[in-house]
TrEMBL record:
<feature type="site" description="Important for substrate specificity">
    <location>
        <position position="153"/>
    </location>
</feature>
<feature type="active site" description="Proton acceptor">
    <location>
        <position position="69"/>
    </location>
</feature>
<dbReference type="GO" id="GO:0009117">
    <property type="term" value="P:nucleotide metabolic process"/>
</dbReference>
<feature type="site" description="Important for substrate specificity">
    <location>
        <position position="70"/>
    </location>
</feature>
<keyword id="KW-0546">Nucleotide metabolism</keyword>
<feature type="site" description="Important for substrate specificity">
    <location>
        <position position="12"/>
    </location>
</feature>
<protein>
    <recommendedName>
        <fullName>dTTP/UTP pyrophosphatase</fullName>
        <ecNumber>3.6.1.9</ecNumber>
    </recommendedName>
</protein>
<dbReference type="Pfam" id="PF02545">
    <property type="entry name" value="Maf"/>
</dbReference>
<comment type="similarity">
    <text>Belongs to the Maf family. YhdE subfamily.</text>
</comment>
<dbReference type="InterPro" id="IPR003697">
    <property type="entry name" value="Maf-like"/>
</dbReference>
<dbReference type="GO" id="GO:0005737">
    <property type="term" value="C:cytoplasm"/>
</dbReference>
<keyword id="KW-0378">Hydrolase</keyword>
<dbReference type="GO" id="GO:0047429">
    <property type="term" value="F:nucleoside triphosphate diphosphatase activity"/>
</dbReference>
<dbReference type="InterPro" id="IPR029001">
    <property type="entry name" value="ITPase-like_fam"/>
</dbReference>
<keyword id="KW-0963">Cytoplasm</keyword>
<comment type="function">
    <text>Nucleoside triphosphate pyrophosphatase that hydrolyzes dTTP and UTP. May have a dual role in cell division arrest and in preventing the incorporation of modified nucleotides into cellular nucleic acids.</text>
</comment>
Length: 194
């Protein structure tokens, strides 16, 4: 039976995959992400996911390896993880009262060297927010390890008015699509992942 490995340090991805009923282990990928604004976001997040998964798959060729990358864009501008709370505040002000896009790319490396990549897009609409709301948000949630300086799953209702698309995808993993892709990968080797 092939092992399933999640090549990620993200606690959110771990939680989502576990909730989906998949038995897996974690091996954090040593791969460096690419940040190149000239590459379209859909392509960039898939490429980063592929780099993360491939680096772990190279060491564990018998496993099915999952890598992912979540990017947040507004007006074509990427919003990374903030370096400090002041940068997080500036990022949240950019998102205030507006719609932005969250794109998560996923790569699944199969044991025969096959790699499938895909992505999912979710539109997120923010309430108009001021410094008071941002302060309240910072008192209950940590914006620092998250692309876009917020976690929709962590008191997201303070900031988020609504979404179009999948909630899981904003959190870091489009679970439904991942399960479908795992079934395909498992079918190729005759093993049911969930
Ligand atoms: C927008 C948003 C992002 N995030 C998180 C998901 C990801 O963990 C993170 C985006 O950074 P990523 O670079 O995609 O992932 P990571 O560095 O946390 O983990 P790894 O590369 O090892 O897989 O932001 C949320 O938790 N909630 C949100 O609402």
């Amino acid at each position: 039976m092939n092992r399933i490995v999640l090549a990620s340090s993200s606690p959110r991805r771990r939680e989502l995959l576990a909730e989906a009923g998949v038995a897996f282990e974690i091996i954090v990928s040593p791969a460096e992400e690419i940040h190149d604004a000239a590459i379209p976001l859909e392509q960039l997040c898939e490429e980063n996911a592929r780099l993360k998964a491939a680096a772990v798959a190279a060491e564990h060729p018998e496993a099915i390896v999952i890598g992912a990358d979540t990017l947040v864009y507004i007006d074509g501008e990427p919003l990374g993880k903030p370096a400090d709370l002041e940068q997080a505040r500036q990022t949240l002000k950019k998102l205030s009262g507006r719609e932005h896009v969250v794109c998560t790319g996923v790569a699944i490396c199969g044991p025969k060297g096959r790699i499938s990549t895909f992505h999912d897009l979710t539109q997120v609409i923010f309430h108009p927010i001021d410094d008071e709301v941002i302060d309240r948000y910072f008192s209950v949630a940590n914006p620092l390890d998250k692309a876009g300086a917020y976690g929709i799953q962590e008191h997201g209702d303070l900031l988020v008015e609504g979404i179009r698309g999948e909630f899981d995808n904003v959190m870091g993993l489009p679970t439904r699509k991942v399960l479908e892709a795992l079934k395909v990968a498992a079918g190729e080797i005759g093993h049911d992942p969930a």
